[in-house]
Amino acid sequence: MPSKPSRLEIESALKGPKQPKRRKARPVDQGKLDLDTPPRRQQVIGGDLTGVAGSQRSGLFNRFADIGLSYWIAGGMVAVILLAFFWPKATDSTREVTQAEAMMRDQLVSSIEPIPGAEATVLPDEPNFTRESDLNRAEEFRRQEEQQRQISALIAKAEEHIANNRLTVPKTSNAVQSYLAALAIDPTNNAAKSGLDDLKDRFLTSGFNALEQDNEAPARQALQQLAAIDKDAEQYADLAQAIEDWRADKKVQTFLSKANAAFKKDNLILPAQANALYFFREALAVDANNKAAQAGIQDIADSFIAKANEAVIEGKYQAAAAHLATVSVIDPTHSSIALIEAMITNAIPLNAASNETTQIAGIPAETANQSTESAQSSNDTDASNPVSNADPVDLDSPFQAPDRPSIERTPALQASEQADFDRQYLKQGLDAYYKGDYETAAALLQPLADKGVARAQFRLAYMHFLGRGFSANRQEADRRIRAALPAIRKFAEEGRAWAQSDLGSLYEDGLVLARDYSEAVRWYRLAAEQGYPGAQTNLGMMYARGRGVTNSRRTAIEWFQRAAKQGDSVAKHNLEALGVN
Fold first, then answer.
1. pLDDT tens digits for 562-571?
2. CA angle 378, 381, 386 (to 5 degrees)
């Protein structure tokens, strides 16, 4: 705005333009004075300026009257800039909406009851937003609105599927998939979570109801439906466990039914894998605390106790001992074992009976592509009987009872008596095996094998290996061989012929031990040189086949002839095949 004119400027303006010098006026005639004309006012600088002040116009307009055009233009531009800066923006309405949304969110959060034990979440102070952040918040709000619209549509679709019983099928359009899709958008959506929880409970109830009706298929289907939602869910684990328990109970019931049927037929321990004892034990393998199976096994033990008692009364003491050996395997803690043993001890001089030996004639060796297994007389039988932590009981040595029955039956005496019973049982089992009665052999040898008798374990292992009395099972054969091998190796190193022959068979067939024909020949030779017929036949086969030794027909015939002289039927057959009389 221009400054107020100075006094000098005012005076210059009042004087007007500089007048040129006038000529000297002629003197006025004093005599002719014009009294009617008013005298001219004197113009004196700094004098009376009332006339000047009176000539100035007042008001706001007059204040800016002297401002130039350029100043007006500049002022207008400034006004336009200020107007553009302070004019309301389109995002102001968005800011208001966002602020309203924040208020609603704060009210919602404050209305939710906190979960016990959960830590409270402290919201940060609302920051000061710039114009760009306001735009981002508006975009986020629009995105959340779109997500909410999608979630609402999915929840409605899920409810429609439930109404039409489309819970898990079809695969891409069902209630479970709709709920899962909603949770994929918002994992915290309560409506979707609640819907899935309801479906889980529904499937769980359906599965339990099916099992109560003894119908496994619908229960399995319900389990698959739970798996479609979440395999880690508690409902899935509960139903899976219920199905397994149901199956186990069904197995137990099936075994108990078969066991009771076998018991009624008096098939207590025979035939193998089809007797009452076998089925009762299978039931206990599924449910170790099953009272019915435990009672059934006790009944079998009582039955053999009764048979042993009858045999003693009839004077059949060896039969009584065999029945008692069976009881000791079925129920070693049976209260009647000591009584029956005392009856047998007091009834006969066991030393005389035990000194008798019976030669087992005509025991064949194994043929085909397997090794020829050993046969032996009753005094050559051995077993590993874990009655204590000491070395296995020596069944090669006959039991010597005192001249007069002893009233005090010491643990050592009881162990010796039990070894004698085991020896008799083992002999019967081996007799049945070599006669081809594999079911009887299995039933007689199984109790001894369960007690850890090495020879019984070895024979059962080869029965599993060769599929005799059992389905061929190499893994079961290996398991039993591993259990018996330490005792067999120990007896072989001590010079027991049967153990040396069995160890040679393991090297020849490659069971548990690595196949080694040279080692097989070495152990066969050690047993054959002691006159063991089974080993003699096996060694002859090694020469005939050239395994571990140079092929020699003559040497093979020599060993076959030695075994044949002892009644070995396989050796005799081999000689006939070679054309030797």
1. 999 998 888 8
2. 135
